[in-house]
Structure formats: C-alpha cells, structure tokens
Amino acid sequence: MIEVSALTVRFKTKTGYFDAVRDATFHVGEGEVFGIVGESGSGKSTILRALTGLAPAASGTMKTGAHASAEKAKAGRAFRRDVQMVFQDPYGSLHPRFTVDQTLREPLAINGIDRQDERIVAALLEVGLGAAFRFRYPHQLSGGQRQRVAIARALIVEPRVLLLDEPTSALDVSVQAEILNLLRRLHRERNLTMILVSHNLAVIGFLCSRVAVMRNGEIVEELGIEAIRAQQVDNDYTRSLLLATGGYQRKAVEAIGMDAAL
Ligand SMILES: Nc1ncnc2c1ncn2[C@@H]1O[C@H](COP(=O)(O)OP(=O)(O)O)[C@@H](O)[C@H]1O
Ligand SMILES: [Mg+2]
After folding, report:
1. Is 43 close to ligand 1, i.e. is its CB under 6 Å away?
2. Which of 8, 11, 216 best tests ligand 1's pocket when mutated (most atoms within 8 Å of CB)?
3. Whose CA is nearest to atom 26 of ligand 1?
4. N or C: which end of the chain has fewer CB within 10 A?
5. 228, 204 in Cβ contact below 8 A?
6. Which residue's alpha carbon is nearest to atom 27 within ligand 1?
7. Domain-by-domain residue ranges, the chain?
C-alpha cells in the first residue's frame, strides 16, 4: 500500500541545504500499522510530510495506494483523499473559529461528497463523541476531544491510509490510552493502513507490527514488534530508546493504561 524507496528530503537553509531524511526505504502492506520511532529531530515528521506532498522529495520514489509520487499531480484530489494525516498538537490543528461541524464539513465539501449532515453525525459517533458536539468550538473541548475531532476529520473522507504524527504525545497519560484504544478499534474496523510516529516504544508496540528506527535522518534499523517486546535489538541506539521509554514492558503499557491485549 505504501512503498518508499531511497527517499531523500532536502531543505534549503541559509548556508546551503540540509537533508532531513536520507535514503529512506520501507514498505507498508495493506491494513498494516507501521511504526516510526526515533529521537526528536530525526526526520519522522518529515517522512510523513513527504508522503502527503507537504515536504519536497529531492530524490527517491514514493508510492501510496494506486498513486506513484510522479502521478500525484494528476491524481490530485483522489490522492489527497486517500491519504489523511493526524498531527501531534490538537490545539494547533483545528481552526479556532470553526465549529466541529464546520471542521468536518470542509473536507466533505472539498471532495464533493454528499449527505454531509449524516456523515458528520456518523463520524462523531465513530470517534466516541455525540452529535451534541457538532456545534462546539475547539476552545470548548478538552485535548482528547479535540484529537477525536481531528481523527474524525481525517476519516470522514474514507481514506485508505492514515498517517499519525505523535497523535498522543500532547495528551495526558490517561487520555493517551483512550485515543490509542480508539485508533486500534478504528484500524480493526476499517482495515486502514497506518503509519504511526512516536518516540515512545510502548505506544508503538501497542499498535504496530513493524517499526523503523530513525536517527539523524536515516533509518538505522527495522524490527518486528516481537523483537521490541523481547527487547532483542542489535543497535545500541535502539536499545537506548528502549531504555528511555521504559522499553516494552507490561509495566510501561499499564502505566499508559492501554488495553493490555498482548
Ligand atoms: N522546513 C524545514 N526547513 C529546514 N529544516 C527543516 C524543516 N522541517 C524540518 N527541518 C529539520 O529537519 C530535521 C527533522 O525534523 P522532523 O522531521 O520534524 O523531526 P522529528 O519529527 O523526528 O522530530 C530537524 O533537524 C528539523 O529542524
Ligand atoms: Mg515530529
């Protein structure tokens, strides 16, 4: 469903250029949840942004669903609809002067989708918010409720791919668990293909089957989730990430309060 091959993302800087991602290669199968983990500044968000066309690919190829990156301009609206993204900061990602209803209606209008009222109510119910939330503004919502709205906005156009950039990092621990459980349910119900970026390996282990470990713009290791759970990692850097986040021990998962279906 997603194929990224030798992707390099280059930004212009005052002194020349900077490669935020270098030679990254990975694939994600249909219905799979793929994790990307790494310390801050390692290029995780840049990979997701490149996949949605928000960051410039200097070289390499990306293919999501039926659309190769070169055809993206042509695929246009269909491509943008197929691949949706949820950002870290639920305070910054919703328009402060839009009601929930307006926020959810906008992507429907852009994509020319009908039966909007019905879809808006259904989307709210799907993320665990009642129809009464429709006419609230972001400042009338908690962080977790905002992130549910952001997830509803992404899903309302029925994408095949959902990109999640640290979707729970800005939330309180107890709220994190609710959102992670919601994402797991949505993945199962919709057979979505997902990429989840996190710096927390317990979060990755809860949702993902495989994970790429990034450092300084490069993928330094790719692991099955069993290896993370068993803490069998070759790379010293990955081991340090495991230690930093409490590894993938039951304790770490329970601390977040996720459904421990392991
Ligand atoms: N638009 C940009 N221009 C220049 N540098 C950027 C830009 N966006 C990101 N970077 C740099 O690219 C690197 C990777 O950033 P990012 O992908 O956001 O890391 P992460 O999500 O892993 O924390 C950082 O050093 C960041 O400063
Ligand atoms: Mg980031």
Report:
1. yes
2. 11
3. 41
4. C
5. yes
6. 41
7. 2-93+160-258
Task: Determine how β-strand 57-64 pairs with β-strand 2-13.
Answer: antiparallel
> What tokens were used for 227?
């290896």
Residue ranges in the chain modelled with pLDDT below 70: 66-79, 245-262
The separation between the first and the last C-alpha atoms of the chain, rounded to the nearest angstrom, is 26
Determine the 3-state secondary structure of 32 from DSSP.
coil
In this prediction, residue 102 carries a pLDDT of 97
Closest C-alpha residue for ligand 1 atom 4:
11
H helices present in the chain, as ranges: 44-51, 72-75, 77-82, 100-110, 116-126, 143-155, 173-190, 201-207, 225-229, 236-244, 250-256
Rg (CA), the chain: 18
Cα-to-centroid distance, 131 and ligand 1 (Å): 38
Q: Give me the helix-helix angle, 116-126 and 143-155, nearest 10°.
A: 130
Token pair of 99, please? 């009601």
Residue 35 has a pLDDT of 97
* 218 vs 235: CA distance, rounded Å: 13
Q: Which CATH architecture has domain 2-93+160-258?
A: 3-Layer(aba) Sandwich (3.40)
What is the position in ligand 1's atom list of the atom closest to the CA of 55? 1
Q: In the prediction, which pLDDT does 111 show?
A: 93
Which residue has 């057979």 as its token pair?
191
pLDDT of residue 262: 38
Compute CA 147 distance to the chain's CA centroid, rounded to the nearest angstrom.
12
